[in-house]
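Hey, can you fold this one?
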Amino acid sequence: MLQEHVFFEDTENEITISSTRIVVENKVFSSGHLVSYEMTVEEVGRPTNSLLFSIGFVILGATLNNKSLAIAGGIVLLLTMILWAFSYLRRDKGLLLSFSSGEEFILNERSYDLPGIQRALNELLIFRG
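Sure. Predicted structure:
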């Protein structure tokens, strides 16, 4: 009988990576069907509409010689730039697991120990040969 080798186990987050299976929360995947994994970064949407809207306010206020309209546009422009900067700081990293069935599963950096899982997946692939 084949011995199951456990490469990674985190009971708090309900994840186990062994020579025969990968268990994430309540899902069980066969280790033999793991095709690849890669680190991913969630793309951040750019606030282009807000940016154009605020620049339009500034230009319109300057053209109509309306100081309050130009100031309001400048404030909205400043807030948009601040939100844009914060959105880049909050990008989520993840680990995308791809299986031969075509199924994909993403492990989020906020919930899981991605470096530990990545080491375990490397060990699994080496063990599997």
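The CA atoms of residues 83 and 106 lie 26 Å apart. Let me know if you want another pass with a different chain boundary.
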